[in-house]
Amino acid sequence: MTTMPISLTAPLSLEKTRSLIAGDKVLITGTIYTARDAAHRRLIELIEKGGELPFELTGQIIYYVGPTPASPGRATGSAGPTTSSRVDRYTPLLLARGLRAVIGKGDRSPEVAAALQEHGAVYLAAVGGAGALLAERIRVAEVVAWPELGTEAVHRFEVSDFPAIVVMDSQGGNLYTSGRKKYRQSR
Amino acid sequence: MREIDVSEVTALVSRLYQEANFNLPPDVVAALESALKLEESPLGREVLETLLKNAEIAARDRVPLCQDTGLATVFAVVGQEVCFTGGSFTQAVDAGVAKAWRDGYLRASVVSSPCHDRANTGDNTPAMLHTELVAGDGVRITVLPKGAGSENMSRLAMLKPAEGIAGLVDFVVDTVEKAGGNPCPPIFLGVGVGGSMDRAALLSKLALLRPAGSPNPDERLARLELEIRDSVNALGIGPGGFGGSITCLGVALEEYPCHIASLPVAVNIQCNSARRATGSI
After folding, report:
1. Is B257 exposed, middle or buried (0-12, 13-18, 19+ CB in 10 A)?
2. Which among A1, A107, A182 has CB closest to B182?
3. Which residues of A are annotated as catalytic?
4. Which residues in chain A have Cβ-Cβ distances shorter than 8 Å to B105?
C-alpha cells in the first residue's frame, strides 16, 4: 500500500511546501498557472526589465503544460505534463521571486535542486501520458497572457484534486534518484 | 492500373490520426495490463492504473490520450500499379493531417523554421512522410503520432563492428538510463541496426510499428530483444520514473545489411502513449 494523498490548496504557504517530502502524493485544489519554454523566456525578460508579471509569483504553482485545444463544452483539452528540463535555466530566478512549486516530468538540474532547497519550494511530477485523465481535474481554463503563443500561452487553471507526486523536496530529497536505486538490479 | 483519387488519401489520413490520438491500440493496453501484474512498486502500479484509466477516458470522451498529439509521422506502402489522380499524393497526406488536427482538436506542435523564427505552422504540417513502393495495386497507410518527450531522448551511434552485440546492448541501455523519467516510462524501444545512418534511424521507427508482444521472426534477434528489455528493466527507472521493475514494455529490433566497416545503431524511444493506426484504400 502507498500512503494517502495530502490535500494542498493553491497558492501555497512556505510552511506547507517545507513540510512536503519526496514521495508524498498530493491533490491540488485552487489556482495554478501554465508556462512552457516560450512563456518562461518572456517571464524572465519581464523580470530583468522590471516589468509587471501577468500574475503574482509568491506562493504560486506553475504547471509545465501545453494543452490541446478544448473541444466544445470542455474547459480544456488533454493536459498532461511536459519535460521540465527545458526550463531549468529559468526556474531558479522564478523560485527566488516566490514561486513555490512547479509541476512537470523528468529530471531537473543541480541548480534547480539547490534553488528548491534555498527557497523551501518543491518539484512535483504529474503522470506523463495521462493528459485526458488530468484534464478532468481542470474545471476552468483561461488564457491570461500572450495568446499569440497558442498552446504555449500562460493559462490560469482552476483545479480540483489535481494529482501529483513530490519528486524533489526542499530538504534535497529526490524520488527519481531514490526510487531508481531501490529497484535497480545489477546486470 | 488502379486509379485512386487523392481525396481518399486525405480522408484516410485524417480518420487514422483522430483514431490514433483517442484510442490506445489494444496490444498497448494489453502490455500495460501485463506490466500491472509484474510491477513490484506500489507507486509504479498506481501509475500503470492511471494510464489504463486515461485510455478509457480518452476513448469515451474523444479527448486526446496525451496533450502532445505528436509530429505526424506517416508510413505509406503504395502498390506500383496505383495511379493517383486529382492532385499530389504528398499534398493530400498533409491535407489529411491538417484536417485531423482541425476536426479532432489536436495540438499544433510544429514550427516552420527551427533555426530562427520557430513559428507554428498552425496545422501540424508537414507530415514526416515515408513512402515505400511495392508490387500490387493497394495502398496501406500507418500513422504514428510521435511525441517530443520520447523523440528527444532517442539516439543514434555509429559503433565499430568490434563493439559487437555487447556494445549495441550497452548503447541502448545507456540511452534509456540517460532518458530517465523524461520519455514517459514505461516505454517501448525501436532499435534499428545496420544500413546507413539514415536507414538505421528509419528502421528504429519502423520497428515501433510492430505490435507489442510480437517478437522478431528471427530467433536470435528475438532473444536479443528480450536481453535488451531485461537489461533496461534492471535500471529500476519504473513507471513514471518513480522507481520500479517495469521501465520497458517491449523491444522491437530490425536489422539490415550494412558496410563491412559499420555497425549503425539507432534507438527510437516510444512513450507509454504508443499511438498508431493503420488503414487501407
Report:
1. exposed
2. A107
3. 40
4. 68-71, 77
For the whole model, what pTM was predicted? Answer: 0.97
CB B78 within 8 A of CB B136: no
**Mean pLDDT of the A34-57 span:** 94
Are the beta carbons of B74 and B82 closer than 8 angstroms? no
Partner residue facing B108 (CB), from A80, A135, A150? A150
* CB within 8 Å: A183 and B240: no
Which of A131, A165, A167 is nearest residue B67 as measured by Cβ atoms?
A131
The answer to whether the Cβ–Cβ distance between B181 and A106 falls below 8 Å is: yes
Say how far apart CA A62 and CA A84 lie, in whole Å.
11
State which fold the A21-183 domain adopts.
fumarase (3.20.130)
Domain boundaries, chain A: 21-183
Cβ neighbours for A83, distance < 8 A, ≥ 6 positions apart: A64, A104, A105, A106, B148, B149, B152, B182
**Over residues A134-163, mean pLDDT:** 96
Residues 6+ apart with CB under 8 A from B250: B31, B188, B189, B212, B213, B225, B229
Which residue, among B63, B111, B173, B187, would best test binding to A if mutated, counting the most A CBs under 10 Å from its CB?
Answer: B63
Contacts of A70 in chain B (CB under 8 A): 105
Evaluate if residue A1 carries a pLDDT over 50.
Answer: no
DSSP symbols for A105-120: BS---HHHHHHHHHHT
- In angstroms, what is the C-alpha Rg of chain A? 16
Q: Check B242 against A68: CB less than 8 A apart.
A: no
Assess whether pLDDT exceeds 90 at residue A31: yes
On the question of pLDDT at A187 being above 80, the answer is: no
Query: CB atoms < 10 A from the CB of A41, how many?
Result: 15
Contacts of A163 in chain B (CB under 8 A): 50
